[in-house]
Write a structure and sequence with these properties.
CATH superfamily of the largest domain: GntR ligand-binding domain-like
Strand content: under 5%
Order of helices and strands: HHHEEHHHHHHH
Largest sheet: 2 strands, antiparallel
Distance between the termini: 49 Å
CATH architecture of the largest domain: Up-down Bundle
Number of strands: 2
CATH class of the largest domain: Mainly Alpha
Structural class: mainly alpha
Shape: globular
Strand order of the largest sheet: 1-2
Radius of gyration: 19 Å
CATH topology of the largest domain: Four Helix Bundle (Hemerythrin (Met), subunit A)
Length: 253
């Protein structure tokens, strides 16, 4: 057990590096790792996670690039002491609806800038074995979508987007997508699916499945332009959903 007192699980099936980054970001978000705290050493992380040194080092480098961690030669890695809400807590009850709405719309536009191009790159560079694994993830997404609170659905949804980034063959894309996923609290999903009552949940599920199927098919067909268009449609849908959940009190744009 490391001196920090945190516990880590064996990485999930997405990619080793993405899973390591995901877990450490969660500990920073939750406050288990505070600004200025020292992370476990590389050797400790290898033992805690059951992975090799190269995966640990790549994950730490990703956290440095994300602005969450700094490396001090001869001393180890530390959570940056001057974090400026890199991952805002959109679920805080003291945030007004107007502020939550604005932050969520900004997040979707950030995702649009990142994930549309990633979809095109994945369509151009995905390897056959990656596509096969991705289809299995999509099947899980469809299988569990009837219950939006099911951890298996939540994991499949995250893995769908992380695996897409992985297929772009650029590890930094995985880190960027992981950062945006970490920025979306499950309380947002809970509110989407319980409020407002005017939202037809069955239609919502069908639309979500179609949007993700379109992405999956265009990438599998090695169609970069189609994949970008499919991801654009997904981001448009997400934006419209936030607007429905958080009606504007001012201009939408």
């Amino acid at each position: 057990m490391a001196d920090s007192g945190i516990t880590l699980k064996h990485p999930r099936r997405i990619t080793l590096v993405a899973s390591i980054v995901e877990q450490l970001v969660e500990h920073i978000q939750s406050g288990a790792l505070q600004p200025g705290d020292k992370l476990p050493s590389e050797r400790q992380l290898m033992q805690m996670l059951g992975v090799g040194r190269s995966s640990v080092r790549e994950a730490l480098q990703g956290l440095v690039m994300m602005g969450l961690v700094e490396m001090r030669p001869g001393h180890g890695s530390y959570v940056k002491s001057n974090l400026h809400s890199f991952i805002p807590d959109l679920s805080k009850p003291d945030l007004s609806d107007d502020l939550q709405r604005a932050m969520r719309l900004q997040l979707i536009e950030a995702r649009r800038m990142i994930e549309v191009e990633i979809a095109g790159q994945a369509a151009a560079h995905a390897k056959p074995q990656q596509l096969a694994g991705w289809r299995a993830i999509f099947d899980d997404y469809v299988r569990y979508i009837d219950d939006f609170s099911d951890p298996r659905y939540l994991a499949a949804h995250a893995d769908f987007h992380l695996s897409l980034a992985d297929m772009s063959q650029n590890p930094f894309n995985v880190m960027l997508v992981n950062a945006t996923i970490q920025s979306v609290p499950q309380t947002l999903r809970e509110r989407e699916f319980s409020f407002p009552k005017s939202i037809d949940l069955q239609q919502l599920r069908e639309s979500q499945v179609k949007l993700h199927r379109d992405i999956q098919q265009t990438v599998s067909n090695q169609d970069p332009a189609g994949a970008r268009a499919a991801m654009q449609a997904h981001m448009d849908f997400e934006r419209d959903l936030v607007i429905k959940v958080y009606p504007a009190t001012a201009d939408d744009r």
